[in-house]
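Predict the holo structure. Ligand: hypoxanthine.
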Amino acid sequence: MSAKPTTAIILGTGLGKLADEIEVTQAIPYSEIPNFPVSTVEGHSGRLILGKLGGKDIMAMQGRFHYYEGYSMKEVTFPVRVMYELGIRTLFVSNAAGGTNPDFHIGTLMIITDHINFFPENPLRGKNLPTGPRFPDMHEPYDLQLVALADRIAAEKGIEVAHGVYLGTQGPTFETPAEYRMFHRMGADAVGMSTVPEVIVARHCGIRVFGVSIITDLGIEGQVEEVSHEEVQKAANAVQPLMADIMREMIKRSE
Ligand code: HPA
């Protein structure tokens, strides 16, 4: 590894487009990385990419692991541990999520300002690793300076963004109307099946985090409709370019 990137991106739903813009210098299949979880879905094994984006050396995880696929919380978050050991200190994440905030619409870009861990487990359960304390602070899980930078960039580009709380739950079922209602009352603006485990481990490593959700369906009282994975993908694809625009510019400008 010649370049020493300090920034990594987890290319979740909504950031696939950004992957095409990376000038790839090295792509390491997950199967070649010791102890990396082996992907079981669709024969698409996933790669750790090293390259340049916005003139910066970056690392990108193409293909992430979800708890609903059967991986343990340790497996889901192992790549973040590897990133930290390789020198990553800033992490960008994206996801697709159902919006529970009545101000949202399909296609809303929600900058994540906080989260609720509704997974049945915390990835830090078990022996504490020396990257952080036994009882890690979580008062600012998402870096406020990066949120401010994203707001500035979005305003400059005329891209509308919202702020909100992301609730991570195990899936794989989408929510019932009663569950969306409950999550909204609990303080969630959006609900999804990823991100929270990775962010918890990143924070335990002192990695600063920026996250965005694309609202792909609505879990708003009286507006809950049938939702499918295909619709989620379609709604995410429609706003991908805007998301990529913000992320690219953030990477260019962040130290
Ligand atoms: N719920 C959970 N996960 C999701 C949703 C949702 O409504 N949309 C996209 N991912």
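Residues 229-253 form the longest helix (25 residues). Residues 167 and 183 are 8 Å apart (CA to CA).
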